[in-house]
Design brief:
Layout: E1 14-18, E2 24-28, E3 31-36, H1 38-48, H2 53-64
C-alpha cells in the first residue's frame, strides 16, 4: 500500500458513510466526493474493515482518485 510521505492524511480529512441501499459515499472534509455502488462498494467495505485510521485514509484517498484540480475553495 502506498504511503503518505508528506503526512497530509493525519488530520482525518476523508470519511465514508454506508447507505441503506448499499452505496458508499466517500467525503472530504464533510463534502461528498465520490459514490461507490454495487461490487465496488462491497469491495471497499471489505478492504476498509479492520484497517487502522491512517491506512483507511490512504484507501479513501485512492478510491476518490485525483479529484482536486486547483479550483477548490477554502
Amino acid at each position: 500500500m502506498p504511503t503518505d510521505a508528506r503526512g497530509e492524511l493525519l488530520d482525518g480529512r476523508f470519511d465514508y458513510r454506508e447507505q441503506k441501499d448499499g452505496r458508499v459515499v466517500v467525503s472530504w472534509y464533510g463534502r461528498p466526493v465520490t459514490t461507490l455502488a454495487g461490487r465496488d462498494a462491497q469491495k471497499f467495505l471489505a478492504r476498509v474493515q479492520g484497517l487502522a485510521d491512517h491506512d483507511a485514509q490512504l484507501l479513501m484517498a485512492r478510491v476518490t482518485g485525483n479529484f482536486k484540480r486547483g479550483n477548490e475553495r477554502r
